[in-house]
C-alpha cells in the first residue's frame, strides 16, 4: 500500500523568499568576484571554471574547486535544456538531476531519496508530485514562482533565433550546437528555471512530512546554491574548450576531488591525457546517472498519472484492475485478440451493465525497451483504429501492466483518457487480460472526468495472432459511449 497526501491551492510566493536568500548568495559571490578578464580563455573565478563542448557526454560543464560539477545537456541543435546533472564531489555521486520537456520546462527532479514529477504549468504556477523511496506519494498544486512560463519560453525562442542566425556556431561530434556567445545565456536560463522550480517545491513542502527529506535539499539547491543562483558568477565565468591547453591548468586548480587524478595524468599524457581522463570521468558519471533514472522510471510513470488526476489510483482500486508493478517486465511484443471483451464494472451510473459485451479488440505491442520501460501499442476495436501510441510498461516475471495516456477530439472538443492493460504473458497468449479506461479530460458527449470502465477478456485467454482477425460485426458498442474507444485524431501524450 502507498500513502497519498494532496495539498491543494498552495499559493507560495517564492519570490520574497528568494530575495532574502539571493542577498546571501550575492554577498558570497561578491567575495570571490574578480575583475573581468581581457581574454575569455582566462579563468575569472578561482572557484569555478566553465568547460564548453564536454566531449560526447555534455554540452557544457561548470567545475568547482570543491569537487562539485554541473553538467548541462541541450536538445540537438537547440539551446533548449534537456538535462542538468549536479555532482557532489564529497559523496562522489550524482546528487540531483533535472530533466526538461520539449519546451524546456522542468518535468522531473530526481535524487536517490525522492522523485519529483512536475507539470500543469499555467501562468507562473505548476503542480508537483513527490514520491519518496518509501513509496509515499504527495501532491502539491498551484505552486507559485516569480517566473511566467510564456516569458521563459519566449526567451528560449530568442536564443534559438540567435543560434540559427549565427555564423560562428560549430557542431560537436553528436550534432549539437556550440557557441561561446550563446552558451552563457542558455546556461543562465537553465539555472533560473531550475532554481525557481526547486525553490518553489522546497519551500512548499518545508512544513510537511517530507520537509526534511525533500524540502531541505531542494531549497538548498533552488534558493541558495552558488552556481544555480549566482548569475553574476556566470557573467564572469571563464569558458574554455576541453581540447585547449587552458583546460589542463583549469582541472589542476578547479577540478577539485572529482578530477584530482586527471591533473597528474598531464605529466605522462600531456594535455590530451588530462582531457581524456576528465572525459572518462564524465562518462562514468553519465552511466551512473542513466542507471539511477532507469530505476526511477516507475516513479515517473506514477507521477505522470497523478498529475492527470490526483485520485486516479483510488479509481483503479475502486474499479478492481490489478496493476503489476516492477522494473523488469516480460517481453510482450506481438498482436493479441481480445474476445469476448466484457464490462466488469463502472464507477458511475452506466447505461451498460456488468457482463455487457463490447467490440472485440486486436491489441498490438511493439518497440519494447526495458531500459527505459517504454513500449508502443496499436489496436483495432470496432470502427476505432489507433497506431503507434507511446506507452510505458512495468511488471515482474510474466506479469505486466501497460500505461497509455491518449488525447484527441470528440466533435471538435478536446478529450483525454488514461488506459491500463494488464495480464500475464505466455508463449501463445495473454492470460487474464484486464483493461481499464478513465477519462481525464471530458468532452460534452463523452464520459465525465474521473469516470471509468473496467473490462476483461471473459474467457481469460487472449491468443497471439498474425495479421488481422475478423471481429463480431454485430457488436458495435464503443467503449467511451457514443464516440468510440478513443476520440478522433487520437495520439498518445506519453513521450
Please render the helix and strand layout as text.
Elements: E1 3-7, H1 14-32, E2 48-54, E3 58-64, E4 69-74, E5 81-88, E6 93-100, E7 106-110, E8 114-122, E9 125-132, E10 136-144, H2 149-165, E11 170-171, E12 177-178, H3 180-204, H4 211-224, H5 226-229, H6 231-236, E13 239-241, H7 245-254, H8 260-295, H9 297-308, H10 312-319, E14 334-338, E15 341-346, E16 357-358, E17 361-369, E18 374-381, E19 384-396, E20 399-410, E21 413-425, E22 429-441, E23 452-457, E24 461-465, E25 488-492
Parallel strand pairs: 1-10, 2-13
Antiparallel strand pairs: 2-3, 3-4, 4-5, 5-6, 6-7, 7-8, 8-9, 9-10, 11-12, 14-17, 14-24, 15-16, 15-23, 17-18, 18-19, 19-20, 20-21, 20-25, 21-22, 22-23, 22-24
Helix pairs in contact: 2-3, 3-4, 7-8
Amino acid at each position: 500500500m502507498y500513502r497519498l497526501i494532496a495539498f491543494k491551492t498552495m499559493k507560495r510566493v517564492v519570490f520574497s523568499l528568494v530575495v532574502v536568500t539571493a542577498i546571501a548568495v550575492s554577498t558570497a559571490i561578491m567575495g570571490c568576484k574578480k575583475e573581468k578578464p581581457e581574454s575569455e580563455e582566462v579563468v575569472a573565478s578561482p572557484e569555478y571554471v566553465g568547460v564548453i563542448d564536454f566531449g560526447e557526454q555534455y554540452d557544457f560543464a561548470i567545475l568547482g574547486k570543491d569537487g562539485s560539477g554541473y553538467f548541462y545537456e541541450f536538445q540537438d541543435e537547440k539551446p533548449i535544456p534537456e538535462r542538468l546533472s549536479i555532482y557532489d564531489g564529497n559523496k562522489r555521486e550524482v546528487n540531483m538531476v533535472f530533466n526538461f520537456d520539449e519546451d524546456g520546462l522542468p518535468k522531473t527532479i530526481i535524487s536517490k531519496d525522492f522523485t519529483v514529477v512536475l507539470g500543469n504549468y499555467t501562468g507562473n504556477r505548476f503542480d508537483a508530485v513527490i514520491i519518496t523511496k518509501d513509496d509515499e506519494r504527495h501532491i502539491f498544486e498551484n505552486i507559485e514562482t516569480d517566473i511566467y512560463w510564456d516569458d521563459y519560453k519566449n526567451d528560449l525562442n530568442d536564443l534559438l533565433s540567435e543560434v540559427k542566425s549565427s555564423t560562428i556556431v560549430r557542431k560537436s561530434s553528436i550534432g549539437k550546437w556550440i557557441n561561446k556567445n550563446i552558451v552563457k545565456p542558455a546556461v543562465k536560463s537553465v539555472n533560473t528555471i531550475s532554481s525557481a522550480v526547486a525553490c518553489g517545491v522546497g519551500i512548499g513542502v518545508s512544513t510537511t512530512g517530507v520537509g526534511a527529506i525533500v524540502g531541505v535539499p531542494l531549497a538548498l539547491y533552488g534558493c541558495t546554491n552558488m552556481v544555480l543562483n549566482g548569475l553574476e558568477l556566470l557573467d564572469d565565468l571563464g569558458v574554455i574548450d576541453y581540447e585547449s591547453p587552458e583546460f589542463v591548468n583549469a582541472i589542476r586548480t578547479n577540478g577539485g576531488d572529482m578530477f584530482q587524478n586527471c591533473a597528474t595524468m598531464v605529466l605522462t599524457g600531456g594535455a590530451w591525457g588530462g582531457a581524456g581522463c576528465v572525459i572518462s570521468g564524465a562518462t562514468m558519471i553519465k552511466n551512473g546517472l542513466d542507471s539511477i533514472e532507469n530505476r526511477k522510471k516507475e516513479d515517473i510513470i506514477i507521477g505522470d498519472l497523478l498529475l492527470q488526476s490526483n485520485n486516479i489510483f483510488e479509481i483503479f482500486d475502486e474499479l478492481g484492475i490489478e496493476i503489476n508493478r516492477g522494473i523488469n517486465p516480460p517481453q510482450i511484443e506481438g498482436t493479441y485478440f481480445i474476445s469476448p471483451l466484457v464490462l466488469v464494472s463502472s464507477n458511475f451510473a452506466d447505461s451498460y451493465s456488468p457482463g455487457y459485451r463490447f467490440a472485440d479488440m486486436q491489441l498490438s505491442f511493439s518497440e519494447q525497451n526495458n531500459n527505459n520501460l517504454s513500449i508502443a501499442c496499436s489496436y483495432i476495436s470496432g470502427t476505432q483504429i489507433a497506431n503507434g501510441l507511446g506507452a510505458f510498461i512495468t511488471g515482474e516475471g510474466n506479469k505486466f501492466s501497460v500505461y497509455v495516456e491518449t488525447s484527441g477530439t470528440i466533435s471538435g472538443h478536446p478529450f483525454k483518457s488514461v488506459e491500463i492493460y494488464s495480464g500475464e504473458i505466455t508463449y501463445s497468449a495473454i492470460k487474464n487480460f484486464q483493461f481499464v479506461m478513465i477519462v481525464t479530460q471530458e468532452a460534452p458527449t463523452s464520459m465525465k472526468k474521473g469516470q471509468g470502465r473496467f473490462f476483461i477478456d471473459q474467457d481469460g485467454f487472449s491468443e497471439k495472432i498474425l495479421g488481422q482477425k475478423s471481429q463480431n460485426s454485430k457488436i458495435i458498442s464503443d467503449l467511451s459511449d457514443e464516440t468510440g474507444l478513443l476520440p478522433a485524431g487520437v495520439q498518445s501524450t506519453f513521450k
